[in-house]
Amino acid sequence: MPETVLQLKNANIYQAENLVLSDVNVELQKGDFVYLIGKTGSGKSSFMKTLYGDLELTEGEGHIVDFNLLGLKEKDIPFLRRKLGIVFQDFKLLPDRTINGNLEFVLKATGWKDKTEINERLIKVLDKVGMGNKGFKFPHELSGGEQQRVAIARALLNEPELILADEPTGNLDPQTSIEVMEVLQDINKNGNTILMATHDYALLLKYPSKTFKCDENKVFEVVQRKS
Ligand SMILES: Nc1ncnc2c1ncn2[C@@H]1O[C@H](COP(=O)(O)OP(=O)(O)OP(=O)(O)O)[C@@H](O)[C@H]1O
């Protein structure tokens, strides 16, 4: 039985009073790798922000993991985010502590207490992204691609039901983008569900997958033609 992790039905997405996307109908199943594409300003980030509770959904229906986005309360947002792994274009690592320190910070903030368990989890997620030997480094000592790998490791810490990646390769050169994409592909093959917003069409061609496009205030599925 497919398990739905995200469902938007007739959803309208606003930025202030402006309708950015109207009548959005999107569904993701567990294990999917789905792209969200579209030109600058077409609404990709607004779509993603709605999913992690940064923009309020006020019209239509929206369910993500086991949360109802319609009428989501401020106090429930941290609990929703614990079930999501969020990866941003600019990595958002804390500059004043090491990679291990960054990951430990998230675990402690989400209730982990046992030192041994924390250390085991850090090693496990860093290994998954090929950064097992870099935990002692500070973010500024890593390349952009390495920092993004760490950000992906951080997203994996609490075994998220869905990973939301908003332009994860946006700050990376083409070769590094491919390396980061390989990491995302690997974790998807290991069962993680991923929704990735991107405007990098080269990646779409190299790693074809189900794709939704934002255009003229609408979101629709596009079918990639094999050339
Ligand atoms: N805080 C805001 N207040 C009002 N309007 C906003 C705000 N943020 C974005 N918008 C508008 O909403 C529309 C969609 O923006 P959004 O950032 O979602 O697009 P995007 O597809 O993610 O673009 P990009 O690829 O440049 O990040 C744009 O017209 C933008 O000007």
Automatic annotation (TrEMBL):
Give all residue intervals belonging to the ABC transporter domain.
6-225
- What SUPFAM superfamilies does this protein map onto? P-loop containing nucleoside triphosphate hydrolases
Q: Name one Pfam family in it.
A: ABC_tran
Please verify whether the record's keywords include Cell wall biogenesis/degradation: no
Mind telling me which InterPro entries this protein's record contains?
AAA+_ATPase, ABC_transporter-like_ATP-bd, ABC_transporter-like_CS, ABC_transpr_LolD-like, P-loop_NTPase
Q: Which GO terms describe its molecular function?
A: ATP binding
Q: Which SMART domains match?
A: AAA
- Where does the signal sequence lie? none
Which domain of life does the UniProt lineage start with? Answer: Bacteria
Q: Which UniProt keywords apply?
A: ATP-binding, Nucleotide-binding
TM spans (from-to):
none
Protein name listed in UniProt? Phosphonate ABC transporter ATP-binding protein
Species annotation: Winogradskyella haliclonae
Q: What is the lineage of its organism?
A: Bacteria, Pseudomonadati, Bacteroidota, Flavobacteriia, Flavobacteriales
